[in-house]
């Protein structure tokens, strides 16, 4: 049997011609370095594509990217087969080609770039406002138990309230302008961030806190020198997750009483039964969210390198 290491089997041309010959396995090296050179050509055995299914075992970056792209390819293939094959009526689900044509028309004829820009502004505005108020409160709740006892019952109650339920009240209080939409995003994000940050800070390792007290740190020093550095990577991860939820809130806010934005475009397209534009708007939201997700991960790794240790 060939030796298998790290989910890959590396075999030279000579080994392929002579099954009894030795097989080279180097589980800790990169895939390129494990290829055997023969007559100026690299030979990669088919088993190199085998994916390691060991629990929690990391896989090479290239393989991770290939698997991620493969799902999108499979998804589009199934979508194309269902629509081009006539299994689903185009009235209810546009095919990929129609969706792309409708998307081009949105940008070229209907100024969709402005809708995308205003939606991004609303998301970032409401989310940043929520984070500015929620993170300090969450840190205080996680660090000081009296503060946690005072705020946690109400925060736990409020975080279960759907932000969309406040839209009728917010329209009465703030009208249908930008303040109403920013308020929906603020309400939907604020309480989630507060509670998640409080839990993160409160879960700081006690041995680190005790060591700091032993070295003479006071209460404020514990927060600044121990709790915040220890919790910062997880707090950034919390913000990354809640930003994704903020996109849900802004689309809901734009579905009612809006004259611009991606959600407004989706509502107009629904009235016209234009599923191509609806799907394109949904995909645009997903692409923007994916870009912001990668940006958050990149910033997290650069700002908090100790989180990778």
How would you explain this protein's 3D organization?
With 309 residues, this protein is mainly α. The chain has three domains: 1-59, no CATH class; 62-88; 105-308, MetI-like fold (Orthogonal Bundle). It contains eleven helices and two strands, in the order H-E-E-H-H-H-H-H-H-H-H-H-H. It has helices at 13-17, 61-84, 96-109, 112-143, 145-158, 167-174, 178-202, 206-214, 219-254, 262-271, 275-303; strands at residues 36-38, 41-43. It has a two-stranded antiparallel sheet. A hairpin with a 2-residue loop joins strand 1 (36-38) and strand 2 (41-43). The longest helix has 36 residues, at 219-254. It is globular, with a radius of gyration of 26 Å. Mean pLDDT is 83; it is low at 1-48.
Topology:
Layout: H1 13-17, E1 36-38, E2 41-43, H2 61-84, H3 96-109, H4 112-143, H5 145-158, H6 167-174, H7 178-202, H8 206-214, H9 219-254, H10 262-271, H11 275-303
Antiparallel strand pairs: 1-2
Helix pairs in contact: 3-11, 4-5, 4-7, 4-9, 4-10, 5-7, 6-7, 7-9, 8-9, 9-11, 10-11
